[in-house]
Amino acid sequence: MLNVPSQSFPAPSSQQRVASGGRSKVPLKQGRSLMDWIRLTKSGKDLTGLKGRLIEVTEEELKKHNKKDDCWICIRGFVYNVSPYMEYHPGGEDELMRAAGSDGTDLFDQVHRWVNYESMLKECLVGRMAVKSAVPKGMLPKSQPTNPLAKESPVSPSYDWFQTDSLVTIVIYTKQKDINLDSVIVDYQDDSFRAETIIKDYSYLIYIGLSHEIQEDFSVQVVENVGKIEIVLKKTENTSWTCLGHPLENHNLLIPKKDTGLYYRKCQLISKEDVTHDTKLFCLMLPPSTHLQVPIGQHVYLKLTITGTEIVKPYTPVSNSLLSEFKEPVLPNNKYIYFLIKIYPAGLFTPELDHLQIGDFVSVSSPEGNFKISQFQELEDLFLLAAGTGFTPMVKILNYALTNIPTLRKVKLMFFNKTEDDIIWRSQLEKLAFKDKRFDIEFVLSAPTSEWNGKQGHISPALLSEFLKRSLDKSKVLICICGPMPFTEQGIRLLHDLNFSKDEIHSFTA
Ligand code: FAD
Ligand code: NAP
Predict the structure, then answer these.
(1) Which family is this protein grouped under (predicted)?
(2) CATH number for the domain including 500?
(3) Residues 326 and 238 reside in one and the same domain
(4) Which ligand is nearest to the CA of 394?
(5) pLDDT band at 15, cuts 50/70/90?
(6) Which atom from ligand 1 is nearest to the alpha carbon of 341?
(7) Tell me, what's the pLDDT at 13?
(8) How many domains does the structure of the chain reveal?
(9) Ligand 1, atom nearest to 345 Cα
(10) pLDDT confidence tier of residue 177, bands split at 50, 70 and 90
């Protein structure tokens, strides 16, 4: 439903023509870009027709507002008059109308849960849903989980705490075996302590307004075989605490991850390096009071305020290089997150990101994504199909696969770009292929110069059937694919035609 549109009508081959999930975007009229929408929301115009009043909306009332020129939609308990936004919605008016006069939360979550509609639609806020005794699913305000413990949910974790003169230790008993340091995200911001443990598709939250101050840094340890997480906080003063503090939203609850909002912390821009003519390597530093490791194959959302409106876009963290000895890790611990980001001169977000100075801040969300490391189990052949910045998830996958999968025989990357100048980390890739005989790289260019004597064209049956040769007849194979949505969709179709099963394909989409 709601989405972040491009600055103006996207180019024919632009990624913006198709949204995630394969839904087509519609051409927006001139003057209906996100920037134009932001300007309208700042103009002081009454966009709700309620002259700034907020009202309680009953279900009966909501149902009445179901026409294009009078369209109210409820998202997480809040009701918006989206009629003024209709023409600015990249998914089109019809898509918005699917939720007219009703609760659009599920529809919104299916399509783009991460879009910061609160900020984008704040001038369209009509009010809250009137709470009924039995509240229907999806009508709950954001603070309440819709389905705290579904049948299939994991056993609920529990926690405990203890203290010494100088330390407070919080112990989370997840009652799960496959917990590691990636599974827990800890933040201490504005006197609030938040530890989110990801257990399958669920999130268990410890969220407390602490009774006393603590120092910024803390340690996080995981005892993997028993699923125990220990977070050791340092007291600022050596006093005895009688309680940990007061519970905040969703504290001590296990809730489906899709029902949790994105949580952000401010990260500092440490460096920015040219990689190609339009792609840069950004290094961001997490605050000392954050523990966060982005799992392989997952992305985060970066948030910037552009002309007073919060804009959010997804990006996939990479390692700082493909070869550890190619470039010594300058920065020692897990406090740094690297991104390869292409700057689109006509784009909304990336030029703004590019204008940031070293030392400036960007908000970074907790990780999202459905890639599972278990997909690597017993893997023998790994094929990676990447187009443009669709290379980014492949970076950590390559690093991990070549060092951690003992059964691996072959890793092949087919990397689609327009020209040679667009190839990200070409020399690193070639060095890696030279160094590790299991790894092969094939570059395919869609707009090469006459000097190019490598492969040319777009993803095609001929290219794929030649490339995707198993090392053994029945070897266990995984194919990862990422790039512009139409590229990914076409690739998946071709892979099915070549008889690869669903389990053998992982496609990266938002
Ligand atoms: P937009 O405003 O969205 O514009 C994008 C395109 O539209 C550009 O091609 C722009 O030139 C074109 N356009 C805009 N206006 C016009 C016009 N008038 N005429 C013609 N064309 C026009 N990107 C990365 O670089 N690195 C990553 O690691 C990365 N990870 C991602 C992970 C996920 C899960 C997803 C879904 C996307 C990822 N992306 C990544 C893409 C990223 O999220 C953004 O879509 C991208 O950075 C463009 O954002 P923007 O706001 O600058 O551009
Ligand atoms: P690009 O340079 O425009 O394109 C890279 C290559 O893909 C070019 O050879 C291009 O050919 C080809 N291509 C484009 N559209 C195609 C199509 N419909 N069918 C076949 N080939 C096609 O790419 P980019 O600007 O870097 O964009 C990268 C995309 O990857 C973005 O859409 C981004 O959102 C996405 N991405 C997704 C994730 C994720 O996790 N989901 C992560 C990173 C990036 P032409 O010369 O014909 O254009």
Answers:
(1) Belongs to the flavoprotein pyridine nucleotide cytochrome reductase family.
(2) 3.40.50.80
(3) no
(4) 2
(5) very low
(6) 25
(7) 38
(8) 4
(9) 11
(10) confident
Ligand 1 centre distance from Cα of residue 344 (Å): 7
- The answer to the question of residue 85 being in a domain is yes
99-112 pLDDT per residue, tens: 999 999 888 888 77
Residue type, 286: L
Instruction: Tell me the CA–centroid distance for residue 346 and ligand 2, in Å.
Output: 16
Q: Are residues 321 and 206 in the same domain?
A: no
Cα–Cα dist 249/208, whole Å? 9
The residue nearest atom 13 of ligand 2, judged by CA position, is 487
* pLDDT, tens only, 188-229: 999 999 999 999 889 999 999 999 999 999 999 998 878 899
Beta carbons within 8 Å of 174's beta carbon, 6+ residues apart: 157, 183, 197, 199, 204, 227, 228, 229
Ligand nearest to the CA of 3: 1
For the CA of 509, the closest atom of ligand 2 is 41
Distance CA 23, CA 109 (A): 14
CB of 347 closer than 6 angstroms to any ligand 1 atom:
yes
Residue 380 domain-assigned (yes or no)? yes
136 pLDDT more than 50: no
Point out the ligand nearest to the CA of residue 458: 2
Q: Which of 333, 349, 368 represents a domain boundary (last residue)?
A: 368
Residues 106 and 54 in one domain: yes
* Cβ-contact 168, 233 below 8 angstroms: yes
CB atoms within 10 A of CB 285: 16
Ligand 1 centroid to 163 CA: how many Å? 48
Q: Same domain, yes or no, for 206 and 322?
A: no
Q: Is residue 135 part of a domain?
A: no
Lowest mean pLDDT among 28-32, 309-313, 355-359: 28-32
| Residue 450 CB-density burial (10 A; 0-12 exposed, 13-18 middle, 19+ buried) | exposed
With a pLDDT cut of 70, the percent of the chain lying above it is: 89
Q: Please report where in the chains the tokens 């900020």 appear, as a residue.
A: 119
Residue whose pair of structure tokens reads 């990914």 in the numeric block: 488
pLDDT for 147 equals 47
Residues of the domain holding 111: 34-129
- Residue 270 sits in the same domain as residue 346: yes
Which of 458, 488, 494, 508 has most ligand 2 atoms within 8 Å of its beta carbon, as the pocket-test mutant?
458
What is the atom index within ligand 2 of the atom nearest the CA of 417? 9
- Examine the fold and report which residue of 197, 225, 259 is the final residue of a domain before the chain moves on: 259
| 3 within some domain | no
Res. 333 pLDDT band, cuts 50 70 90: low
Which of 4, 9, 13, 16 has most ligand 1 atoms within 8 Å of CB, for mutation? 16
